Amino acid sequence: MIEVEVKAKISSFEEMEKRLDEIGATKTKKEFQEDIYFNSPMVDFAKTDEALRIRTTRENDNTNIFITYKGPKIDASSKTRKEIEMGIDDAEKCCDIFEEIGFKKVRAVRKNRQYYEYENFEISLDDIEGLDPYMEIEIGLADGEDYSDAQNKIFELFEKLGITDGFERTSYLELLENLY
User: Fold this and answer.
1) Dihedral of the CA atoms 10, 15, 17, 20 (nearest 10)?
2) What is d(CA 73, CA 82) in angstroms, rounded to the nearest whole number?
3) What is the CB neighbour count within 10 angstroms for residue 176?
4) What phi and psi, each to the nearest 5 degrees, are found at residue 42?
5) Annotated active-site positions, please?
6) How many domains does the chain have?
7) What digits encode the pLDDT tens for the residues 75-86?
8) Distance CA 174, CA 36 (A)
9) Other C-beta atoms within 10 Å of 167: how many?
């Protein structure tokens, strides 16, 4: 799958919630996410612009765990890249396996995320520990599908929501790493 994603710093969750409601976006769920990022013993993911993480999500009494690999970004204006994800049962054992074969933990990123749906967009309002508020808009495409039209539609939706600047291509991990 190709994930076409754009994020922007926002000034207020309340303001964005109001604007999303005004355009008819549907609030779908709210969850806590903890992402544990790893670096490869073979290549430096910070240099190759790749990511490997274990994500644990909690929504009410539901917990889900995923391993996600994200390939290098494939354009200059968004975070469009290949994404491979699979569910697992035990984050701690997976961390142990990764570390035993040479992967190193980089950092945990924790956030509360409110999801919205609008047309074929997934929108999230992200409250990340240590960062200002952000909004992400994304569309998933099949491998080989043209992503340029999807990017344009994402930027049009941002404009419809009153956001014309504050766009960020770096990951939350990179933003946190740059602070410290």
Assistant:
1) -90
2) 8
3) 20
4) -100, -40
5) 37
6) 1
7) 888 888 999 999
8) 13
9) 14
